[in-house]
Amino acid sequence: MIRELAPAKVNLFLHVGDKRPDGYHELESLVVFASAGDELTFEEADALSLHVEGPFAAGLAEEPDNLVLRAARQFAAFAQIEPKVRITLTKNLPIASGVGGGSSDVGATLRGLSRLWPGKLTLPQLWNIGHDLGSDVPVSVLPGCWWMTGRGERFASVPEIGTLDALLVNAGTAVPTASVYAKLKERSGTGRMTKPQRFATIGQLSEYLHRARNDLEAPARTLCPAIDEELAALNRTNPLLARMSGSGATCFALYPDAASAGMAAETTSREHPGWWIAPTKLNFGRKWEFQ
Ligand code: C5P
Predict the structure, then answer these.
(1) Both 121 and 15 in a single domain?
(2) If you measure from the C-alpha of residue 16 to the centroid of ligand 1, how many angstroms do you get, rounded to a whole number?
(3) Into how many domains does the chain fold?
(4) Among 67, 128, 185, 236, which lies 20 to 30 A Cα-Cα from 53?
């Protein structure tokens, strides 16, 4: 049986530029992946099937044609084989929450199927399949620290910024990405930040990030007031930085070390027992492989 982690994606900053003729907006974002994520397994079977379990499984029950199934069908079509695989998805990440769970599930599916059926497709072919399934799927095919541009589908490597101790929180409200973009007014534009260099200290990284923001935070807050509460709760734990990820509503905070992130998790869980709260490591040093 093949296992793949589908790590949560965090936008350390996200600047939005012009709206393009195709309706998407130009973006500039520094993206990292977390040690927290969904888990997928892949086993040879008589037919294609998907079984969803885990704490957030119920959120996908209404969705018969899950992105994971579409990715598996497209992989098989490109590879000219029958998609005879049983996929199990353990949904640990909240749905529609700004940490790219669905996109990361697709990325993990493409990696998993490449291991189950080696040598069938090349990495650029996987990126092409990903491109059709969502703006930030290609970046999730090989999770890493990426400088993301275009509508989110273009990405370039950045110098190693090191592992970051973080906390992810979500109060439980799903925010649809398209509605957040529809409410967007002020945009930082692209080209305002330079690609980061190596940071000698976490303080320098934090200073760099404080010069940027997430442009989607303001419109998301008007749709989902819980984001205000999440940021207030995170700011009470004295983080280096607290910010929303993606189009929300998940917010993250960065800390100087794992002990501070752990303490912040304890305090926030006590204050908000119903929230999803995940102390995690960002850019956690795992080398992702493609076969
Ligand atoms: O590609 P994805 O499904 O993630 O995008 C969802 C919606 O978010 C799009 O239909 C579009 O309205 C908006 N979007 C955008 N600009 C982007 C990415 C998404 O306007 N770069």
Answers:
(1) yes
(2) 11
(3) 2
(4) 128
